[in-house]
Recover the amino acids of this structure.
């Protein structure tokens, strides 16, 4: 097998020379090898590249991942990410610990939720600036959501625009400093003998951990493998996350889960893969066409999120009108396109 992996002389001197290398599956934005070293060890070598539809942003993604891995290294016994063993900034290369992945399990969510909370709890106000702040929904997202309702002839309750403006203000990441993975999808988590570890921190940021806890309810909004988590598995995962956070920080998780879920609902970019984000108004597309990402369509993702927000906001002080609008939109989408399917259940994770 090829040993042509981008390990420079400094890394070879510190870690050993490659004797065998296997190119692993990865996104178009990186190249990843499992490498056997002359000293007998084994590592993962990851090189960030431009492309994959995201433009020339490789330097920024490399810097984010290195910074996030160094912050994640604060977790010990157990760790929550592979150790960063060496770097070569000029070539955007990272050498990482090779973790023994045990593969998936039917009851994967509690361990995932625990490690997610442990990751989020690693940082605080003193880490401001170590990573970019989380990027939340904007006024343009709110306007696109209301325009979609109008395009589908669903009346917008009078209070909805003001509620959306208040939602955007409440989702401001400035008061929060949790270490967010940025894309905590099934497949970016590895189940090891000591717990779940996260990989691929290219979109890491600092913000409110609830925006990633909301993945369980909103169908994993940045992931191709959208899925529905309900009933006892959902309740257990959220309880594990909250209990872990409380044990580590001494306080309850700040913020409102309904706000976090509503934030994902109004973001059209959460209907498409990363390469297609920040390009067009994807919520506007939903009224005219359906489009797939993974094994579900944009309309199916949207109906799921509409139902989640409608359920969470029935008695909500600040999102009552948005809840009514979400329920009405879910009905309209289902009536107009009756072949829309429910999201697959959590048992379908890759």
């Amino acid at each position: 097998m090829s040993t042509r992996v981008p390990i420079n002389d400094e890394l070879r001197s510190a870690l050993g020379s490659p004797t065998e290398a296997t190119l692993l599956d990865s996104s178009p934005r990186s190249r990843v090898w499992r490498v056997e070293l002359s000293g007998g060890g084994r590592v993962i070598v990851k090189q960030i590249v431009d492309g994959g539809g995201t433009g020339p942003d490789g330097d920024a993604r490399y810097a984010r991942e290195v910074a996030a891995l160094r912050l994640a290294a604060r977790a010990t016994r157990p760790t929550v990410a592979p150790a960063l063993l060496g770097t070569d900034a000029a070539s955007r290369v990272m050498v990482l610990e090779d973790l023994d992945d045990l593969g998936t399990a039917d009851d994967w969510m509690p361990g995932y939720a625990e490690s997610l909370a442990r990751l989020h709890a690693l940082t605080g106000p003193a880490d401001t600036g170590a990573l970019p702040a989380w990027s939340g929904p904007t006024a343009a997202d709110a306007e696109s959501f209301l325009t979609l309702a109008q395009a589908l002839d669903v009346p917008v309750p009078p209070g909805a625009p003001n509620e959306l403006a208040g939602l955007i203000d409440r989702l401001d990441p400035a008061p929060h400093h949790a270490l967010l993975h940025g894309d905590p999808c099934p497949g970016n988590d590895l189940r090891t003998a000591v717990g779940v570890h996260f990989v691929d921190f290219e979109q890491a940021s600092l913000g409110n951990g609830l925006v990633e806890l909301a993945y369980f309810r909103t169908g994993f909004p940045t992931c191709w493998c959208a899925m529905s988590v309900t009933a006892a598995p959902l309740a257990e995962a959220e309880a594990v996350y909250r209990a872990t956070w409380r044990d580590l920080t001494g306080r309850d998780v700040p913020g409102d889960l309904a706000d976090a879920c509503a934030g994902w609902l109004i973001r059209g970019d959460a209907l498409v893969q990363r390469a297609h984000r920040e390009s067009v108004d994807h919520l506007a597309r939903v009224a005219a066409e359906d489009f797939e990402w993974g094994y579900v369509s944009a309309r199916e993702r949207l109906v799921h999120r509409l139902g989640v927000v409608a359920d969470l906001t029935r008695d909500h002080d600040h999102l009552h009108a948005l809840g009514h609008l979400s329920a009405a939109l879910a009905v309209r989408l289902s009536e107009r396109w009756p072949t829309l399917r429910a999201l697959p259940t959590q048992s379908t994770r890759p």
Notes: The first strand starts at residue 18 and ends at 24. The chain has a mean pLDDT of 94. DSSP finds twelve helices and eleven strands in the chain. The CA atoms of residues 314 and 323 lie 6 Å apart.
